[in-house]
Design goal:
about 475 residues; alpha+beta; seven-stranded mixed sheet; seven-stranded antiparallel sheet; 12 helices
C-alpha cells in the first residue's frame, strides 16, 4: 500500500507541486518582503530530500545557508544560478497557469526541468536580504568566483564535473505598469532557462540549479517610500530625443552657473571623453577599535584647479574603468577608488544596458570590493544618477563576500552621477534616476486627499437620506388625526 502511494505522489506534476506550495503561503505570509527560491538538480543527480519549511515560515539568511550547504555537499559542484531582478509569489499565480490554463503558462521550461529532476526544493518565502546574499554564500561554499554569463557564452565554455563552477545568469523583470510586458519578459526569462538547461544537458555535466530574485516584485508602500530615498528604479523614456538632450544640457548649464559648483571628472581616451563622474560628496569610513574614522575625498577630486590622478583608467565599447588615485587617506600612503562598468545587449529587453559592476577600494596592497550591478544600472545611452549611493543606509552597494575587507568600510556618494559609455561633447547624457515612483510627500498627499473624499462622500450620503414631513400640525386648529390604516 505504501508503494502504491509513493508511485501516486511521483505522478504529480512538479509544476503543480510548486504552485500548491506557493498557494499555501498566500493567506499565511506577507508576500511584499519575501521572494521564492526553487532549487533542483540535473537528471541522474539525487540528494537526500530536504523538508520544506512550514506554511507561513519565512526563511532567513542562516537557515537558507544551511539549505544550500546541504544541497551542495550532496549534489553537483557546478551551480547554475538564475538571478532575476524581482520576483514574488504572484508571478507564479498570475502567469503560471495556476487555474488550469496551462496554455497560458510562461514557465514551460521551468516545469520540464522540475519534472525531470529527482531532487528539488521549493522555498516559497525567503527574506529578500537573504536572497541578496545567495551569491556570496555560494561563493564561500564552492570557494570559487561567480561567472556572469549568457547562453551564447555558456555554449563556448567547457565545464568539468570534478571542479566547482558558479554560473550566474541575470534575468530582468518588467518595470512597466502593463501586465503584458511583465508576462512577455517572464516568458523570455523562461526561454533563457530552457536554453541553459539544453546546453548543460548536451555537455553531460551534472549541476545544481537555483532560481530566485534579489527583491520582491510586489512591493509594499513602505518599500516604495524607502526606494524613493535610495532604491533602484530606472526612468525609461523614449530613446534620448532632441528635447531630452536639450533639457539635460540646460540643466547642466544652470548647474555650472551656480557659485561654488564644480565640473565633473573626465577621463579621455585620446581626444575623446569616454568617462564622466560627478558627485556632491565622496567620503569613506573605516572601522578601527570600535569607532568609525572618516575621510572626505571631495576636495581632492573636484573643484577649480584640482586635477585628480586617473592613471590606471581605461575604456572601450564594452568595458570602462575609472581609477581615482589618492595619497595619505586614513593612514594609507596609497589609496585608490575604482569604478568598474560594463555594457551588453539583452535580448529580452532588446536594448543595451550598462551596469556599475563593482566599486573597489585598494590600499597598501589590500582590495575591498563592493558589488553594484544588482541595483546600479541604466540604458547604455543614458547616464546614471542617484541622490545617495551607500553600502550601509538603503544600500545600493553590497560587499562581495562576508569575508571581504569591504565589511570594514563604509562608502557614501551624495548626488552621484556617472557615465562610462556613449559620452558626447563632454556632457552627461539624459539621466536614468534611481528615485522611487512615490516619495513620502506624495504618499501623504494621496492619503490626505483620500480621507477628504471619504468624509465628503459620507456627508453627501447622509444629506441624501434626509426626508421632510408631508403633514404639519396647526396649533390654532384641530389636531391632525392619522388613521391607523394609513
Amino acid at each position: 500500500m505504501a508503494t502504491t502511494g509513493t508511485m501516486h505522489l511521483q505522478r504529480i506534476s512538479a509544476s503543480l507541486a510548486v504552485l500548491l506550495a506557493l498557494f499555501s503561503l498566500l493567506n499565511s505570509a506577507k508576500c511584499d518582503e519575501q521572494v521564492p527560491l526553487i532549487l533542483w538538480t540535473s537528471e541522474g543527480v539525487s540528494t537526500s530530500t530536504q523538508a520544506p519549511p512550514a506554511a507561513g515560515h519565512i526563511v532567513e539568511q542562516q537557515q537558507l545557508s544551511s539549505y544550500l550547504e546541504k544541497a551542495l555537499n550532496e549534489g553537483a559542484k557546478n551551480v547554475v544560478l538564475f538571478l532575476q531582478d524581482k520576483m514574488s509569489i504572484e508571478d507564479f499565480t498570475m502567469y503560471g497557469g495556476a487555474f488550469g490554463n496551462k496554455q497560458d503558462s510562461v514557465y514551460p521550461n521551468l516545469e520540464v526541468a522540475l519534472m525531470s529532476s529527482s531532487s528539488r526544493l521549493v522555498l516559497p518565502a525567503v527574506s529578500w536580504p537573504a536572497s541578496n546574499a545567495v551569491i556570496g554564500q555560494l561563493q564561500d561554499q564552492l570557494e570559487t568566483s561567480p561567472l556572469y554569463m549568457d547562453p551564447e557564452t555558456l555554449s563556448q565554455l567547457r565545464l568539468n564535473a570534478s571542479s566547482s563552477a558558479l554560473l550566474v545568469f541575470r534575468l530582468p523583470y518588467g518595470i512597466g505598469a502593463d501586465l503584458m510586458s511583465a508576462k512577455e519578459i517572464l516568458s523570455g526569462n523562461d526561454e533563457v532557462i530552457g536554453q541553459v538547461m539544453s546546453i548543460m544537458k548536451s555537455q553531460s555535466v551534472p549541476y545544481t540549479a537555483i532560481y530566485t530574485a534579489l527583491r520582491p516584485s510586489r512591493e509594499a508602500a513602505s518599500l516604495s517610500m524607502e526606494a524613493g530615498q535610495g532604491g533602484g528604479r530606472s526612468l525609461l523614456q523614449y530613446r534620448g530625443g532632441y528635447r531630452d538632450r536639450e533639457r539635460e544640457r540646460e540643466r547642466q548649464r544652470k548647474v555650472k552657473e551656480r557659485p561654488g559648483v564644480y565640473g565633473p571628472v573626465e577621463f579621455k581616451e585620446g581626444d575623446e571623453t569616454c568617462i564622466l563622474l560627478w558627485a556632491k560628496s565622496l567620503s569613506v569610513k573605516i572601522l578601527r577599535s570600535g569607532t568609525w574614522e572618516d575621510h572626505d575625498l571631495t576636495p581632492s577630486t573636484f573643484g577649480e584647479g584640482v586635477s585628480p590622478k586617473l592613471h590606471g583608467s581605461s575604456c572601450d565599447k564594452t568595458k570602462a574603468r575609472l581609477v581615482l588615485n589618492y595619497e595619505n587617506v586614513l593612514g594609507h600612503r596609497s589609496f585608490k577608488l575604482m569604478f568598474a562598468m560594463s555594457q551588453r545587449h539583452y535580448k529580452v529587453s532588446a536594448r543595451r544596458w550598462f551596469t556599475l559592476d563593482a566599486v573597489e577600494l585598494e590600499y597598501d596592497g589590500t582590495k575591498a570590493t563592493f558589488n553594484g550591478s544588482r541595483h546600479i544600472y541604466a540604458p547604455a545611452e543614458y547616464s546614471y544618477r542617484c541622490e545617495s549611493v551607500t553600502n550601509f543606509r538603503w544600500p545600493l552597494l553590497t560587499p562581495r563576500t562576508s569575508k571581504d575587507p569591504s565589511n570594514q568600510w563604509r562608502v557614501s556618494f551624495e548626488d552621484f552621477q556617472i557615465q562610462g559609455f556613449n559620452v558626447s561633447s563632454s556632457e552627461f547624457s539624459y539621466a536614468s534616476d534611481c528615485a522611487g515612483f512615490f516619495s513620502p510627500g506624495i504618499w501623504m498627499g494621496l492619503i490626505t486627499s483620500l480621507l477628504m473624499v471619504l468624509v465628503l462622500t459620507y456627508g453627501l450620503h447622509m444629506i441624501m437620506q434626509l426626508r421632510t414631513m408631508d403633514r404639519f400640525d396647526d396649533p390654532k386648529g384641530p389636531a391632525i388625526s392619522v388613521p391607523q390604516t394609513e
